[in-house]
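User: Could you go from structure to sequence for me? I need the amino acid at each position, not a summary. Structure tokens:
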């Protein structure tokens, strides 16, 4: 409800913003003509905008507090995903529409749009892989891009030196990613929290620096070009056909990833990961092998990164160390956090939002990073659990009263 106190507070906020931005947005000195330009219109826009945004901010904060009170009172609604799953007809209709759209997408849109979507699907694989490590096991990994680089360079080097094809290199890239995941997991078994994040960040930088400086092995900053695209029984494909083929290969790999991650999440090892995430000491006290559980999380998460790296190298036909910087790890981590840690639909939606929106907002290219940062801040304030909250299974024991009757 609009009150005088709220209006007064919004006026003070707008005046404060106008005061802070006055030297930058209003005053402009023209040294050529030696005049000072006063852009009062900018000041009015800033005042009106900050006045309106303060109202929106307080409204959202009030809704957040009301939601917390409903949650404490037990009147919170079920998550959207759970409500859809409880209605089989609706869920089947949504799945059917998504499948139909996915199948006809490359034939309705341009090659450029298909390429963008293929890139988003690669990040879906990376996000689902990192979701195992962070979302399920609770291990903060800031060097995840290292396994991505291992997969990409494994295919590029095998293809360059030995002519190894895509379909042979794909499982090899996953195996090498798992191997490096175990190599990283052993030294950090006793670490957690910030210390684990620092070590994994260092591991990612070590891999990148090795690839950038070991010229005899990785060709250094020049990278590797001429990498073969995925083949189909030796059939020659045009660029457009190859792009569509890679798109459908990625669709198959994403479906495979979702299937395995979902099965792992609901398996014994998945429940062990969740227990490790919630309380490491209690997890160990319950008889769960902490060492095996952590190594399994690192290895399986790195497997999908290695496979995604192989697909990335085959898609672009050129790689160099500049493609595997810390910024990539930050983007993948943002996908998991924005989508919802532990939620498969959330990670998929987060990848599509973070990868596709910057491409479709090129008209705001000068402000894309500002919008990106503002989006993350708003998500952390108003929806810290992510776009789609992970649905946790609840097990209830119902005794057979009939057996107790004499």
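Assistant: Here is the amino acid at each position, in order:
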């Amino acid at each position: 409800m609009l009150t005088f106190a709220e209006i007064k507070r919004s006026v003070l906020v707008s005046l404060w913003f106008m005061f802070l931005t006055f030297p930058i947005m209003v005053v402009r000195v023209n040294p050529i003509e030696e005049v000072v330009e006063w852009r009062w219109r900018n000041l009015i826009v800033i005042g009106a905008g900050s006045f309106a945004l303060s109202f929106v901010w307080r409204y959202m904060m009030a809704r957040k507090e009301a939601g917390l009170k409903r949650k404490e009172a037990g009147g919170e609604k079920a998550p959207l995903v759970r409500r859809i799953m409880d209605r089989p007809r609706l869920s089947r209709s949504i799945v059917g529409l998504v499948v139909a759209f996915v199948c006809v997408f490359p034939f309705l849109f341009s090659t450029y749009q298909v390429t963008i979507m293929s890139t988003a699907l690669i990040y879906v694989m990376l996000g689902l892989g990192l979701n195992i490590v962070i979302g399920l096991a609770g291990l903060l990994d800031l060097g995840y891009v290292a396994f991505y680089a291992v997969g990409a360079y494994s295919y590029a080097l095998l293809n360059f030196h030995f002519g190894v094809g895509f379909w042979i290199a794909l499982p090899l890239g996953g195996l090498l990613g798992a191997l490096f995941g175990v190599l990283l997991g052993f030294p950090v078994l006793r670490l957690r929290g910030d210390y684990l994040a620092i070590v994994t960040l260092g591991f990612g930088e070590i891999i990148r620096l090795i690839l950038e400086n070991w010229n005899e092995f990785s060709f250094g900053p020049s990278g590797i070009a001429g990498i073969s695209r995925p083949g189909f029984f030796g059939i020659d494909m045009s660029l457009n056909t190859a792009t569509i083929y890679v798109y459908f290969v990625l669709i198959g790999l994403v479906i495979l990833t979702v299937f395995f991650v979902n099965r792992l999440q609901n398996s014994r090892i998945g429940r062990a990961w969740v227990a490790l995430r919630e309380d490491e000491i209690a997890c160990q006290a319950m008889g769960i092998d902490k060492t095996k559980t952590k190594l399994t999380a690192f290895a399986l998460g790195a497997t999908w990164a290695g496979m995604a790296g192989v697909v990335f190298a085959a898609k672009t036909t050129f790689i160099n160390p500049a493609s595997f910087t810390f910024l990539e790890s930050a983007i993948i981590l943002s996908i998991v956090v924005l989508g919802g840690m532990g939620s498969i639909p959330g990670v998929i939606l987060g990848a599509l939002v973070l990868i596709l929106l910057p491409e479709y907002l090129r008209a705001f290219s000068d402000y894309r990073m500002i919008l990106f940062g503002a989006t993350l801040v708003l998500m952390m304030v108003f929806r810290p659990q992510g776009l789609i909250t992970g649905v946790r299974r609840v097990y209830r024991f119902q005794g057979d009263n009939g057996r107790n009757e004499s």
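One structural detail worth keeping in mind: The first strand starts at residue 27 and ends at 30.
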